[in-house]
Amino acid sequence: MSAIAAAPGRIEISGKIFNPFSQAFIREPRATWQMLLRDYPIAYHRDLSMWVVNSHELCGEMLKNNVFSPNFMEWEHAPPAKADADKNDYDRTFDKSLFTVSTRDHLKLRKLTMPAFSKPVMGKIDGKIRDLVLECFDAIGDADTFDVYEAIATKLPVRSIARMVGVPTNMEGFFHDFAVGVVLATRPNLSPKERDAAVATTLPGLAFFKEQIAQRRALPHPGDDFLGSLVGASDNGESLDDYEILSIILALITAGSDTATDLHTYAMLGLLKHPEQYAKLQQRPELMENAIIELLRHGSMGKFPFFRFATQDTEFAGQQIKKGQCILINLSAAWHDPAKYPDWDRLDIERRLDGNLVFGAGAHFCIGTYLVRVQGGLMISEFMKRYPKATLVNGDGQIDYDYKHHNARRITRLMVQTNKGA
Amino acid sequence: MKQWICVICGFIYEEANGMPDHGIAPGTRFEDLPEDWQCPECGSPKSAFEIYVG
């Protein structure tokens, strides 16, 4: 905290102190995070033109403070709002998204959609995606080595979400492009041209789902699956319109496909790098849910985790944040904050994780949290069953990264030795 | 005894079970939880909870 005490006024950093695009940072970010946590719990990044909040305490406070909105249109550099007549399906869906609507409408959306996302319902998803998990592992077969990224991470998340929302298997590529476009379209660190391109890739997917919704509405009963439960949802006479349902599908995609790619690679990297934890989880599978949260915390795959936008001039942690400014909530650093986790670098699947921010906090807490646990749990259980003695090839898994990924320290190769005959 | 669900994250508080790990005894009614009690999963306030019929 010395930087705050020594320098009244705005605390600033530059790309020399924190460059999330540097390959060295993407490969090994922990020293940078520790420096940010120690010297810059909050600072304005001159080169990124945004605030960066790093400490666990401040990240938690900001996530729970409604002055800081996830609505990208509050940003000082947001594109001008379009006239109603000029809006396409993406714009209309965006207007109804969980990140865009007012606090009151947000609560309505969460209430109406909660039944579709709740723990009991997600528990039933288990049976619906189990065959997809088995399919991935069957394709690996008796190989001596395989790549977790290629064999599992690129396939399971997008197939699971597609299954949930009723997309046929032969439209997997179509759906994948849609999912990436959806995730990309609201990133503040894109040029207007890049954003327009991302939005354009979402339009065919939105048209497809609009048609699906129309078909369900025409039925006497919309069905008990995920889409049917959204079409049929009602609470005190309120229900979801087409664009609200589309916004929920987009939220599911954001939460569950591109982001979940990293869940699988980082989970297996963490477990196989710590064989004693891998062995413990095999002996005590009841630790699975806790293990997944701890693996996400320890792996911290985010490069550019979350953004908020100040809706008014505000003093926060002694700093003056101006209306419209962008804030990077650097949860990856926060999950390694020694003030919250004195042994932050230790992977401990039995760790007490009370008050953790792994799925965020407050009104915008990750809507897909139970889906992540179900999908991750199924994958890890099957992995342990088939390859109980697996190790990382060369001890490091011959890791490679996609250094240009828009928000993650995306692992694109993780080689595993199955040791089947050992 | 009732069950209460957090409409933000889906966490279910079961009055019959309480949360002994968090110092809340089995049988503690939702109304009797402290006003500043927060959802242990997502940190939402008590006002984010509704009665849940499973």
Features:
heterodimer, A: Cytochrome p450, 3-stranded antiparallel sheet, 17 helices, B: 54 residues, mainly beta, Rubrerythrin, domain 2, 19% strand, globular
Structure write-up:
The complex is a heterodimer of chains A (422) and B (54). Chain A has helices at 2-6, 23-27, 30-39, 56-63, 89-95, 103-117, 119-140, 148-153, 156-164, 172-184, 192-218, 226-232, 242-273, 275-283, 288-299, 331-334, 369-386; strands at 12-13, 42-45, 50-53, 68-69, 145-147, 234-235, 238-239, 306-310, 314-316, 319-321, 326-329, 391-392, 400-401, 411-413, 415-417. Chain A has 422 residues and is an alpha+beta fold. Chain A has one domain: Orthogonal Bundle (Cytochrome p450), CATH 1.10.630.10. In chain A, β9 and β10 form a beta hairpin. In chain A, α9 (156-164) packs antiparallel against α13 (242-273) and α10 (172-184) packs across α13 (242-273). The longest helix of chain A has 32 residues, at 242-273. Chain A starts with a helix and ends in a 5-residue tail after the last strand. Mean pLDDT of chain A is 90; it is low at 1-7. Chain B has 54 residues and is an all-beta fold. Chain B has a single domain, classed as Rubrerythrin, domain 2 (Single Sheet), CATH 2.20.28.10. Helices cover 0% and strands 19% of the residues of chain B. A three-stranded antiparallel sheet of chain B has the order 2-1-3, with no helix packed on it. Chain B is globular. Chains A and B meet through α6 of A and loops of B.
How many beta-strand segments of chain B? 3
Strand order of the largest sheet of chain B: 2-1-3
Overall mean confidence score, pLDDT of chain B: 91
User: What is the CATH H-level superfamily of chain A?
Assistant: Cytochrome P450
CATH fold title of chain A: Cytochrome p450
Order of helices and strands of chain B: EEE
What structural category characterises the helix and strand content of chain B? mainly beta
- Side-by-side strand order of the widest sheet of chain A: 1-2-3-11-8-4
Total domain count of chain B: 1
| Main sheet specs of chain B | 3 strands, antiparallel
Any idea what the CATH architecture of chain B is? Single Sheet
Gyration radius over CA of chain B: 10 Å
Give the termini distance of chain A in whole angstroms. Answer: 51 Å
Which two chains have the most extensive interface, and how many residues on each?
Answer: A-B, 22 and 16 residues
Report low-confidence residues of chain A grouped into runs of 5 or more: 1-7
CATH class annotation of chain B: Mainly Beta
